[in-house]
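Batch job 17 of 40 flagged for manual review because the log was empty.
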Amino acid sequence: MELSIVIINYNTFQLTCNCITSLKEKLLEVEYEIILVDNASVECNPDLFKEKFPFISLIKSHTNTGFTGGNNLGVAAATGEYLLLLNSDTELINNAPKICLDYIKTHKEVGMVSCQLQYPDGKIQHTCRRFRTISWELLEIFPLYKLLPKAKREALMLHHYFDHQRFAAVDWVWGAYMLFPRSIIGQLPKKKLSDDFFMYCEDTLWCWDFKQLGYKIHFLPQAKVMHIHKGSVSKDKWIKIRTTSIKNHATFMKKFYPDLRWYLFAAIYYTKQYGALWFGKIFKR
């Protein structure tokens, strides 16, 4: 098997069906399997997926193991040489997995590739990121980056400062679409995707682990996928989710600053993030 695609379903039956259908229609010239992990959904009987798509491998978890736990269940069952972690609220626009697969096969220094994610209206999502540092946060608050040439500014800052229309070497990408060799799993500290976080910031941590092993992470804009984003999240839960994400990112930053500098980073980061969350867009996010 060339490629194992791992999809996590949690009460997103129709979105997940749309995702699988798009794989059937758009993913060509690749030998692949789809591993669907149902994370104790209550929306409907997960066996309905098997009735609709007999060719998939269905894993039914009796507890909600979160995004990390669900992906680790799928990864453990995978037989492909390469893995694609794919959100249930995505649909292929073109043959993105094939494009990414062809690229990573010829670039052995690359441990992970991601694609251009778009909202349903075609607007591009800002998925290419730098690890947050004291200097990055200060550059955003006091926009000295504007003094730099446009190309250098975009490469330095990424995020919404980068147009996502061309190739980029990045620090981390969203977990909505991650393609990498399965062999890297055995090289990770826990021999699986790090499960420090139940959900939110886990993608940042995974990319950190990959880069600690010496691998590069590349963004390929020619590979395109539609991503509804927050498709599995109700609006009334968003504040709680955002708060959890902020705390997890701050906890992650202790890997960068395991000394007193973390307190300086935390003071800047929390002020900025909670200010934006509770008092409107005071700072750019």
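Reviewer: the log was empty due to a logging misconfiguration, but the result itself is present. The chain is about 35% helix and 20% strand. Unflagging and moving on to job 18.
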